[in-house]
Design brief:
Length: 363
Amino acid sequence: MRIGILGAGQLGRMLALAGYPLDFDFVFLDPATEACAAPLGTHFRAAYDDENALSAFCGSIDVATYEFENVPAKTAEFVSARVPLLPAPIALSVGQDRLSEKTLFDQLGIPVPRYLPVSTRADLDRAVHAIGLPAVLKTRRLGYDGKGQAVLRTPQDLDAAWARLGTQPLILEAFVAFERELSCLAVRDKNGALAFYPVVENVHRDGILRTATPRANDPLQTQAEEYARRVVDHLGYVGVLAFEFFVAGGALYGNEIAPRVHNSGHWTIEGAECSQFENHLRAIAGLPLGSTALRGHSAMVNFIGAAPDNAALAAIPGVHIHHYGKTPKPQRKVGHATVTADSAAELAERLRRLQDLVRAAES
């Protein structure tokens, strides 16, 4: 089977690495000259609105998917009219717009922080009056890794935030003083069968994911699965979806969904019976889903801006190194490592050593 992927970044790269043992071949479409998945398949280097390239892409594949949620809507429509595109474009349209996400969560009875759309400076004043401060002003589209948002703590913060973000549709959300950030990774096949990985506890810094640790037997596992189930069933979803939550007062609040494989699930390559990447491919290819059970204890640490020395990483027992083949630059994800262990205490010690190396490389 030939699988087409819109986008050729590290997620596409890891999808291909998971798919070759299943005898899948890969075709990527991505305008980037430095597309790190390109060495793993055929690469159409073309703009997402290049219909000639899109036609050639569609003509060379059996099924299409995507590795990032900001694929233009017209591109998704063009591809889905010619080959199966999974997940379906409706998932993209929801995942691309924070207001659409929050509206859907409301409709499905999933708790969310208070929010209001903001289109004008007067809207912002009204929204702040209604929601109160602190609050977070976010772009409705294209924000990721902490980009496209501003925390408003006092009325004096409004002018600067509006000057920076006010040229595009926005949403104001109540600030959540969360205790934890969790993600729930769900995978749904073409027949509606579902599987869930253990919820993942995430630690961000400067808006970028730093560490992701699966939590076996977390008290919020069942509730997180139920909320994710409502979303994927409503969308008729096929593939892996990540649902990110805030935990406040011991309860879950929906933050956002990612209709694709997700950074918080990279640990599954070594830490689960079947990785999120393989399971996504199984789902879109019509194969039975693999087991999401844990294999011991594990945690993942991102390499941001630069990676530690391979020899130092490899000296830590249980460490599995993943470089993405990307040129290092500040705030860029250039790789990750997953550390595995037989016990929680052993994991904690190995993780501490790994994090020390990563901090030193970033400094």
